[in-house]
Amino acid sequence: MAAAIEFKQVNKWFGKLHVLRDITLAIQPGEVVVVCGPSGSGKSTLIRCVNRLEPIQSGDVVVLGQSLTSPGVNFSQLRSQVGMVFQAFNLYPHMNALENIVLAPMKVKGLSRAEAEKIAVALLERVGIPEKAGQYPAHLSGGQQQRVAIARALAMQPKIMLFDEPTSALDPEMINEVLEVMTDLAREGMTMVVVTHEMGFAKRVSHRIVFMDEGQVVEEGKPETFFAAPRSERTKLFLSKILVH
Amino acid sequence: MMLAGILGLQYEFRWSVLWESPYGYWLLQGFKNTIVLSLLAWAIALLLGIALGLLRTAPWRLPRAIATAYVEFFRNTPLLVQLFFWYFAVPQILPAGPVRDAINSLNLDTPILTLNFEFLAALAGLGVYTSARVGETIRAGIQSIPRQQTEAALSSGLSLIQVYRHVLIPVGFRIVIPPMATEFLSIFKNSSLAVTIGFAEVTFQTQQVNSYTFKGLEAVTAATLIYLAISLTIAAFMNRMEHRYAIPGLIARGAVRE
Fold it and tell me: What is the pTM (predicted TM-score) of this model?
């Protein structure tokens, strides 16, 4: 089976800063991959390359069989198949939860309002907040906003979901409600790439963990071996720092 | 003389000059001309200004450079000088011929006002000057929206044009309603400069009343009250707009509290 996402010797610079160094990585359909590493290690940049929020300078990224460096790629069409959830939620503040969710299905896929709302209502049910459909983002808690953001991404019926530190901006008691939604999604077979520091989630849910440092993939492996027997010193140091609490 | 009047010395008030014929009619004409000039100039300023503001935030280099040059030029030269440019310089730049003659001798009575070159020059000056300021306000509004908002919209498959249409414009425009209200108020007050190129708006007519009656205090009082009434009406209207289109929970209303 062809990989859902394939990084082939990807290099990226921000000015002189070499943020991704020769990344080669394949993610299979249905696989849940957690990307972790210290701040500034390039993990967010890595997943932002998948839907081309960041262009790359050399190498290639192939997403759902489509090379992103080949000429004439339809990024809008590609992005409609790759959902993304951000640390800061980024809901549209002038639209209520339902309107946030129906916008892309109506404008990109051309669904009627009735069709799109039907999907949106079902998704709000699925993320556990059907009663919040008419609420504006400013009147929702962080956890609720993030669940709306997940519903918004799912409304496009994507084949891949990218999560960029989805719980980092949340109060501790709200983290679980978001992780539960993500866990359900993983169990249903969604292809997911998750940048997170939630090691509990990584242990329980992911199929593979990728550890990055200074723009490189230092180590990758199944969660059992990654946590029990990390190979590199850098990984051991990182784990010792984040697993104490 | 005016100061003496205020101090209650020798000045004899004659408020009736404000409604006596023909002075009352002149002031009314001036009021109407001020309104027509300002509203039409505002329409031009909004159309051009929105286009300028959006181009200044867009990722296309040449249009952005042109919009920036336009804004910086017209925002950073005095309106009075710009009015003189449109009124005195433009007719001389035009090649001699039927177009120039037509502009110079233009005098067309329409139901709303007398269409003459004074009006056109004032309209161009006020509209273009204000469009640069409106453009700057719109740009600031769009750029105050976090970049991630655009990324979230793009990552759902919307095109850049759709992101502007459904996210950046609706949010950005709501944010700038208060400074836009200021620009809208300014255009009425700035329209008084059209007196210098002979357009018969309120300030011009006030001068006329003074010249004919020597009742300057009454005339200037009338002008002051007319501008004040216009401004307060506009301010109330824009205040209602601000409340009506407020983004729930995003923009604080009323005073900042400790």
Answer: 0.87
